[in-house]
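Repro:
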Amino acid sequence: MPAKAKSAQMPKFTPAPKALVNTFDKIIAGLPEAEPRKMFGYPCAFVQGQMFVGVFQDRLMLRLADADREKFLKLKGAKPFEPMPGRVMKEYVEVPPEILNSDAKLKPWIERGLAYAQTLPPKAKKAKSKK
C-alpha cells in the first residue's frame, strides 16, 4: 500500500501552557452557561452545543459574530485563527497576548463570543456508538 501523502498527516499537537489553561479555567468558571469540554485534548467551552472559545496549543481561539470579529481583527496582534497553515477557521480569531494577559480586556470579548454562540441554532448531541 502506498504511504499517505505528507499533507494528509495530522500535525503533532503540543501541550498547552499551564498558565493558558489556568486563564481559560478562570474565564469559564465565571460563565455558568458554558459547558467545558475537550477538543483534540485541549479545553474548550460550548453553549447549546456550539463552541465559542477554546485553547489550541499555546493559543486561545474565540468565535465572534461578523461585526465583532471585524472590530477584533483591528486590534494589535489579532488575527484569524488558523490551526494549520492555510486552514483558517471561519468565525474564529486568535486572541493576542495583550488581551489574553488582561482579564479586564479579555472578559468582554469572551462574553461577546458567548452571546454570539447563544444566537446560533442548538446542535444536537451525537449519540455514542456502541462497539
